[in-house]
Amino acid sequence: MIPITIGIADDHLLVIQGIRAMLSKSNFEIVFSTNNGKGLLENLYEIQPDVLLLDIQMPDMNGIDLCREISRNYPDVKIIALTNMDESHYVKQMIRNGAHGYLLKNTDQTTMIEAIEEVMMGNQYLDRQVQQSLMDEVLLGKRRSVQQVMLTKRETEILALIAAEYSNNEIAEQLFISLRTVETHRLNISHKLNAKNLVSLVKEAYKRGLI
Amino acid sequence: MIPITIGIADDHLLVIQGIRAMLSKSNFEIVFSTNNGKGLLENLYEIQPDVLLLDIQMPDMNGIDLCREISRNYPDVKIIALTNMDESHYVKQMIRNGAHGYLLKNTDQTTMIEAIEEVMMGNQYLDRQVQQSLMDEVLLGKRRSVQQVMLTKRETEILALIAAEYSNNEIAEQLFISLRTVETHRLNISHKLNAKNLVSLVKEAYKRGLI
DNA sequence: TGGAAACTACGTAAAACTACTTAGGACCCT
DNA sequence: AGGGTCCTAAGTAGTTTTACGTAGTTTCCA
A36 to chain B, minimum CA–CA distance in Å? Predict the structure, then answer.
């Protein structure tokens, strides 16, 4: 039986070892593993595995962009995202950018093997927990994913300034607009993002890379 | 040769597998592994390994407190902290609370084995990168502002709740203390951290892994 | 066992932010 | 030309947070 070839990209050696251990007893062949985005691209250039297990958070490159680039250049490689983040936001992003599967890092052997086999058959595989949070979002109308809410240019600008620790007053000075305007923008942002308070805003800013 | 017994506590199965894989070829016997603090305490009650590899961030318990408790109750167990956080702040905390070693999760096999052997000989073992940042801090007098400032347990707790989007009032309810007390703590935190506003606090919370 | 640190709490006043509404002018797209 | 969105701004009235000071009790540990 021809083995399924696997590539691994994760910045933690321990995790790589863990994956190797999990996959060692089955019909898989790990053809490369790397701990950074650059190395991944180099490896992919040499050899394209059937399945790529891709950590979203690597030091040198953004996993989401990486995913898009890889699925564009090597459309036959099935990408399974591997991450701690179960927010639907990331899931959607990854799927839209060509990932075929989405696993969390606390996954077990059975799940991982199942995921690999599913994507090899051309199906999509999402971690159970991730599926659940997507469902919740749809059914319960939980806050729809962050990125879908579009902030205007001005709003983004103001959110960035808020996150940069400026007060409304300081922002007004800096942008040469009135305090009231800043307040209006801020309120609009809060409503759009369904933010309870300033803390939510800061977290949002993190997610949007404004910090 | 009598094997060195090892206990593992980490919330990611993949990491546990990774450690098992790394240690499998040597004279080590893994006597238990668990993915939460409660399970760890139960396991420890049954059997005390020579070395405990302890993840600082587990869902149900704070690794630093856990470390203190374990080193108090089982002084013969050598604890090696295992984490992503290389900030000197954590390192000091862990060492003060009885850890004998401090490894980062991107460690390799050689390092891990070396660390285990060192602590078994009664020595302290710090990851090279961690050592470096401690050195930098001392030698270059890196900004003490952020990491060196110690928050008390209560303050840390409150900072975490702030970062979890609770208002002062909600925090008061949750901790069964008065609003005024929360305000006092909060003010103290802000002063300690030299924080201009809530945003600084949230950022601090990020740095300290409270989010 | 004595002292330091931590946790608790209140008073008062000012500053900052939130909520909801309305509205004019600018700009873009069809 | 009309409709939509965006940016601007203000009114009015609240709530929440900050600032600074004081101080009693508990906990820890040297």
Answer: 12
Same domain? B97 vs B16: yes
CA of A108: which chain B residue's CA is closest? Answer: B13
- Least trusted range by pLDDT, from A42-56, A139-153, B38-52, B122-136: A139-153
Identify residues of B whose CB sits under 8 angstroms from chain A CBs.
11-22, 35, 105-109, 162-165, 167, 196-200, 202-203, 206, 211
Those residues of chain A whose CB sits closer than 8 Å to some CB in chain B are 11-22, 35, 105-109, 162-165, 167, 196-200, 202-203, 206, 211
Same-domain pairing of B158 and B179:
yes
B27 & B119 share domain? yes
Q: What is the pTM of this model?
A: 0.61
Helix axes A13-23, A109-120, angle to 10 degrees: 80
- For residue A161 the two structure tokens come to 């300034």
B206 contacts in chain A (CB < 8 Å): 206
At A8 the pLDDT is: 94
CB contact under 8 A, A165 and B35: no
Domain presence at residue B18: yes
Residue A158: domain span: 149-207
CA distance to A124, B6, B24, B53, B81, per residue, from B30 (Å)? 36, 5, 9, 10, 16
Please state, in angstroms and rounded to a whole number, the distance separating the CA atoms of residues B11 and A129.
16
